[in-house]
């Protein structure tokens, strides 16, 4: 909580959000694209854990995922709170897949816990190899999310990851397009190597993008590599598909949706989302977030209108539930909206943030509509990442950091007030009410 002398009362007609933005100046020159990273062949012992990453797996549990080339290597995780002293262990299961001439290694998934919140654990996979460590998220506020989509494996990806590594965050949120393998399965392996230093130390919660589809009609179903390698807590959240799920951390309920699986009113995803949102307890989790790949509010010419059908089906559900913030990717640029619903500003709608600028190989989407829509607050085509610090049950601080000449430059920022403060059940209930804003 900030000092009382910084509190300023504003009417709700200000939409519950005030932006303090560093607007891109006319002399700012966007940096050029960078080449795809080169990963020299580095053979490892067959049972050596590779591509280690972790994710949340239900209350007070973590899923550890890694790959070995030895199918007999045990799916064992030994862990404890002191380096080299493993007082607990967990056993999991394995999977693998084939893709044309490619055969994956053995993919291990092991859930460990229960774990203490806000605690550093040291762990080893498969009974050998290097020791890793991770920090569990806190059980209460404050909690910080790092957010970056459309990562890929370029020099700008590396820059983005380096900047995220400097952030004191608890969980990484990734709204689709991870490796940009695009059918070349070895690129999934190099992506796993690239992100291991970060993804083995903090939970990475991801959803799928179009570059994860990799389907070949009549031969290979979509998302085979993604589902095998990046198992998320869909079963723990009552979902029947790894392509959509939810989880809770500290005081936030986070819904991860699939832009590339059925979402109409008769679909399993729609019915799951409706049921999931009905279970949200805003006293326990006063913040409600949603992520998916294709943005619903986008003033860039790239992928214009691509999310309209999903928005038509699902936006009323998010609106009725009082979702605070929606993150999306797909468009290789950054944009933040006001609270918005049904195509226009609405004090009871969600703030939509497009953040598909992690460092992909396709470059940036430079061309925006002019003039910008009335709901668009800030937009810029640059690589970067975002940080969302939820300070307490009513206030969160959002910042977007541009990768400018390898320096992380905070280029957009805002204090956001949750619906727990405004009581935004209907427009009529919110008109004329006052909220707090921290500059």
SSE map:
Blueprint lengths: L7 E4 L5 E5 L28 E7 L5 E7 L7 E5 L7 E4 L1 E3 L2 E2 L2 E2 L2 E7 L7 E6 L6 E4 L7 E5 L7 H11 L5 E5 L10 H14 L4 E4 L16 H6 L15 E5 L2 E5 L11 H11 L8 E5 L16 H14 L3 E4 L5 E8 L2 E2 L4 E6 L20 E5 L3 E7 L4 E10 L2 E11 L1 H4 L4 H4 L3 E4 L2
Parallel strand pairs: 13-14, 14-15, 17-18, 18-19, 19-22
Antiparallel strand pairs: 1-27, 2-26, 3-4, 4-10, 5-6, 5-11, 7-10, 8-9, 11-12, 13-24, 16-17, 20-21, 20-22, 20-23, 24-25, 25-26
Helix pairs in contact: 4-5
Task: Using brief descriptors, characterize the structure shown.
439 residues; seven-stranded mixed sheet; 7 helices; 15% helix; disordered C terminus
In a few lines, what is going on in this structure?
This protein has 439 residues and is an alpha+beta fold.
Overview of this structure, please?
This protein has 439 residues and is of the alpha+beta class. Helices cover 15% and strands 32% of the residues. The protein contains seven helices and 27 strands. It has helices spanning 155-165, 186-199, 224-229, 268-278, 308-321, 419-422, 427-430; strands spanning 8-11, 17-21, 50-56, 62-68, 76-80, 88-91, 93-95, 98-99, 102-103, 106-112, 120-125, 132-135, 143-147, 171-175, 204-207, 245-249, 252-256, 287-291, 325-328, 334-341, 344-345, 350-355, 376-380, 384-390, 395-404, 407-417, 434-437. The strands form six sheets. Strands 16, 17, 18, 19, 20, 21, 22 and 23 form an eight-stranded mixed sheet that branches. Helix 1 (155-165) links the parallel strand 13 (143-147) and strand 14 (171-175). The longest helix has 14 residues, at 186-199. The protein starts with 7 loop residues before the first strand and ends with a strand. The model is unreliable at 1-28 and 426-439 (pLDDT under 50).
């Amino acid at each position: 909580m900030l000092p009382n002398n910084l509190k300023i009362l504003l009417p709700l007609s200000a939409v519950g959000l005030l932006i303090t933005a560093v607007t891109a100046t006319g002399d700012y020159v966007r940096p050029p694209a960078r080449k795809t990273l080169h990963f020299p062949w580095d053979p490892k012992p067959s049972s050596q854990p590779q591509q280690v990453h972790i994710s949340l797996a239900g209350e007070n549990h973590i899923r550890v995922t890694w790959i070995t080339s030895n199918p007999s290597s045990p799916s064992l995780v030994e862990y404890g709170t002191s380096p080299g002293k493993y007082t607990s262990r967990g056993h999991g299961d394995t999977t693998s897949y084939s893709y044309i001439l490619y055969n994956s290694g053995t993919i291990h998934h092991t859930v460990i816990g229960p774990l203490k919140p806000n605690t550093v654990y040291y762990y080893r996979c498969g009974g050998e190899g290097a020791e890793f460590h991770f920090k569990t998220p806190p059980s209460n506020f404050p909690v910080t999310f790092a957010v970056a989509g459309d990562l890929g494996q370029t020099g700008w990806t590396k820059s983005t990851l380096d900047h995220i590594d400097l952030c004191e965050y608890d969980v990484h949120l990734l709204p689709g397009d991870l490796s940009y393998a695009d059918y070349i399965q070895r690129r999934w392996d190099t992506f796993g190597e690239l992100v291991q230093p970060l993804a083995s130390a903090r939970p990475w919660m991801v959803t799928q993008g179009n570059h994860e589809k990799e389907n070949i009609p009549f031969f290979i179903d979509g998302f085979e590599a993604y589902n095998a390698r990046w198992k998320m807590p869909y079963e723990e959240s009552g979902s029947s598909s790894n392509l959509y799920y939810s989880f809770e951390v500290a005081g936030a309920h986070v819904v991860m949706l699939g832009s590339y699986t059925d979402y109409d009113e008769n679909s399993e995803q729609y019915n799951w989302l409706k049921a999931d949102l009905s279970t949200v307890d805003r006293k326990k989790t006063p913040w409600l977030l949603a992520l998916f790949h294709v943005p619903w509010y986008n003033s860039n010419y790239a992928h214009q209108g691509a999310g309209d059908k999903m928005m038509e089906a699902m936006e009323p559900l998010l609106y009725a539930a009082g979702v605070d913030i929606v993150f999306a990717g797909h468009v290789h640029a950054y944009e933040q909206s006001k609270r918005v619903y049904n195509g226009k500003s609405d004090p009871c709608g969600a703030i939509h943030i497009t953040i598909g600028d992690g460092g992909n190989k396709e470059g940036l989407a430079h061309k925006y509509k002019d003039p910008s829509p009335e709901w668009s607050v800030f937009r810029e085509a640059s690589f970067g990442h975002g940080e969302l610090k939820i300070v307490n049950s009513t206030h969160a601080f959002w910042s977007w950091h541009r990768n400018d000449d390898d320096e992380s430059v905070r280029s957009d920022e805002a204090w956001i007030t949750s619906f727990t403060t405004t009581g935004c059940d209907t427009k009529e209930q919110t008109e004329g009410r006052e909220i707090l804003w921290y500059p």
